[in-house]
Design brief:
Order of helices and strands: HHHH
Largest sheet: none
Helix content: over 70%
Radius of gyration: 10 Å
Number of domains: 1
Number of strands: 0
Shape: globular
Oligomer: single chain
Number of helices: 4
Structural class: mainly alpha
Strand content: under 5%
């Protein structure tokens, strides 16, 4: 379920990444950063 939700919010997260730096996002939400890495691996 978590992976599916992360896929749905993929667009929103992508927009956030454009506005905020990668390191900033990881610090604010390490879990989201990890999910992003998994998505990249896919």
């Amino acid at each position: 379920q978590f992976l599916i939700m992360s896929e749905s919010n993929k667009d929103m997260k992508s927009n956030m990444l454009k506005k905020s730096d990668d390191s900033e996002l990881r610090e604010s939400s390490p879990i989201e950063g990890a999910s992003r890495v998994q998505g990249a691996v896919k």
